[in-house]
Amino acid sequence: MTQKKLNIAIIGLGFGAEFIPIYQKHPLANMYAICQRNEDKLNEIGDAFGVDVRYTDYDELLKDPNIDAVHINTPIQAHAEQSLKALRAGKHVACTVPMATTVEECRQIVEASEETGLTYMMMETVVYSREFLFVKEMFEKGELGKIQFLRASHQQEMAGWPGYWEGLPPMHYATHCVGPVLALPKAQAEYVSCFGSGRIDENLIEKYGSPFAIETCHIKLKDSDLSAEVTRSLFNTARQYRESFDVYGSKKSFEWTLIEHEDSVIHTGEVPSKVKIPDYAHLLPDEIASFTTAGVYDSDDNQHLSFIQGAGHGGSHPHLVNEFLSALTEGRAPYPDARESANITCVGILAHESAMAGGKIMKLPEFTLK
């Protein structure tokens, strides 16, 4: 059986360049076009990867009738506007995290996706990382027993990142820790309560009015006896980079390693044992399986900041691409779809509001629930 390949356009070629060869080799995709405002950078990447269709203007790209879907990898402040423009132009959307920076923007994207019938997927790396896939496999096999509690953290030092990151409220970029605690039990957040702690440098506070060094949020899961806890820090907190995910079950529990590159731990009853996390390339088409362990940014002299700090995102990139393309081809919703992406993103947005209000309980809006 033959099927038409999907013409993909990638927007933003810093982190976004990582995905070009994955789409080029995926059997369901044609890596059709790239977009970058800087023409020199655009041509450098286009020449390096052999992509002939190039745009410096996003609005002009959206007029191209050959494009089926766009993959957005631009600064976070642009995500909502660019996603909405694409959906309204008749294009499916994959967008790097977070979905948006306000609850209202999330609502507009959900409505646009549902009104047009087009697919929106937030490309949340952790829920396709080898660590998450390992725990998910344990859970689906019944090895964990009943899930009793979930915890995740994302701690990093963002000094030296582009200026728009400076002073960002920690929970405004919380999807890497919120995503896994909702994805494993296939749940949505119902309400949150969050506390801020400590204080960042005064010059960092000015931009967003957010004083906290660390924000810690409790999440009540809808239609469930479960709650989860997530912790986020961005500045002025001593800690090796860590995206962690712990799950406590009635039979077994999984705890992420405290130190990068060391082994994680499984507790069976009260007995701990270290475990080496396997790769999950076998879940992918053969053509892109190698990208779980190597990509564009994998050499010492050619590394993107998100890769240097993010441990290669757990081999998630080809899994994300495969989920997006498979969902489009099969006519089903990807994970996370628009509502699930909004629920994950709004947890962080509302958690920061809660922290600024001394821990006030904040309910997730109805449009984020299923």
UniProtKB/TrEMBL annotation:
It comes from the Bacteria. Pfam families: GFO_IDH_MocA (PF01408). Residues 6-122 form the Gfo/Idh/MocA-like oxidoreductase N-terminal domain. InterPro entries: Gfo/Idh/MocA-like_OxRdtase_N, Gfo/Idh/MocA_Oxidoreductase, NAD(P)-bd_dom_sf. GO terms for molecular function: nucleotide binding. PANTHER family: D-GLUCOSIDE 3-DEHYDROGENASE, UDP-N-ACETYL-2-AMINO-2-DEOXY-D-GLUCURONATE OXIDASE. This is Predicted dehydrogenase.
